Amino acid sequence: MAIDRNSIPSSLSQMAELFEHALLTTPAQTGWGQFLDAARRHEQIGLYGTSAGVIVRCLAQRGADATTIQTAQALRTYWTNRDDDYGARRLVQTPRLALLHLAFATLEQTPENAAATNQTRDELLRRQLPSSLWGNYWIDANHNDDTPRAFVSALVLLALAASTPPTAQPAAQPAALLNAANSLEGLLVSTPSLPPHVSVASFASILLARSTAPIRSLTRRMNAIARARPIGLDDQALYFYDYQYRNPANGQIESDRDYVIVPAEALYGIAGFVPNSPIALRLRAESVLSLMQSNIATNRGAFRPTSDERLTTVNQAWCALFLSFALRASEHTSIYNQVMYFLLREREGNALMNFWFPAVTSLIAVALAGVLMELDLPSDWLNVAAKLFTPMGLLVIGDINGEMVIRRLWRRET
């Protein structure tokens, strides 16, 4: 399946237009809130929504127009006022800071934007734990989440590695990202029970942050995850977390709860389009790309997971980021790899491909093996090839279909 690169800018442009039509302007600020389909009487402008809008419009190559200048200023104001009541609650949260950094990094790097990009990047790196990973929040060295969190670490490393570092970045930063990638890889290996979306997001960030190949067992694991989970655009990666912040009114440490929600298929897609990604992830990403572009076109420039779901700004940002990775991805994969993915991937609600196809091909393979074993071919090398082909063919068909057929036959019997 080849990537239609000519259609991706159009999808990004549609998404940018949606944000432009939903732009909110008050005497105090300009930007976006949590939803794009909220009634105007419920105007809400915030850090998350404005960061998402900036990311989408920059990835759509909107340039330094008035909207870009105003919303960039709004983001810089959030960052400058990070110790006020609004900022103190939000920018201690490491996932929110990661999205803000990504928004700054996608902007044209004027002196003001470059300074904000460097400052948010340095702050994220300052929050690295001794393990080189990240926790849910950070107030200061004495008040922070000191437990390495896999999903948060994956999102932070993804934001840092995906953003184009300013030329003035400190020389130590590449080493910090490499250490984070190595630590996250170790966490992945030692924790096979991590949810699939966490594993895939971690894997993508590792590939982005360093050029060396991951451990082979992780590549096999990612291929298995990509094949085992049917594609569903409505699948959301939801992560709730507790955090603390310092109340500016009284200086006391207080607690609250928040969450991160990311379209899971956007994470799978990003992982599939990162260089050196395993083949099953890549082929899944190509399928997701087609489905997501169709969804965006159907919903007039918006990614809407289900017909009754609100249009969240952050969902749009993750989808735009996925589209941008697709735009930069290498050429399409080989026919052989596409066929193997087609044979191996899991499907839902299809009796032909779930039972009859593997059952019939297994029977054909066994019958063909018997015929080849009995054939007396005109040359010795053909006889040897036939004899070798028989066990090898049975092994391949057995690996593809064996467990699937036995499992489904057992279900029918019970």
What does this 3D model show about the protein?
- The protein has about 425 residues and is mainly alpha-helical.
- It folds into 2 domains: about 10-345, Glycosyltransferase, CATH 1.50.10.10; about 350-414.
- Helix content is about 60%, strand content about 5%.
- The chain contains 16 helices and 6 strands.
- The strands form 3 sheets. Strands 1-2 form a two-stranded antiparallel sheet. Strands 3-4 form a two-stranded antiparallel ribbon.
- A hairpin with a 2-residue loop joins β3 (about 140) and β4.
- It is elongated and about 90 Å long.
- The model is unreliable at about 165-175 and about 405-414 (pLDDT under 50).
- Strand proportion, as a percent range, falls in 5-15%
Would you identify the CATH architecture of the largest domain? Alpha/alpha barrel
Net shape: elongated
SSE sequence, one letter per element: HEEHHHHHEEHHHHEEHHHHHH
Q: Taking all residues together, what is the mean pLDDT?
A: 85
Strand segment count: 6
Give me the number of helical elements: 16
Main β sheet profile: 2 strands, antiparallel
Report how far apart the termini are. Answer: 39 Å
Walk across the major sheet and give the strand order.
Answer: 1-2
What is the CATH C level class of the largest domain, in words?
A: Mainly Alpha
Main structural class: mainly alpha
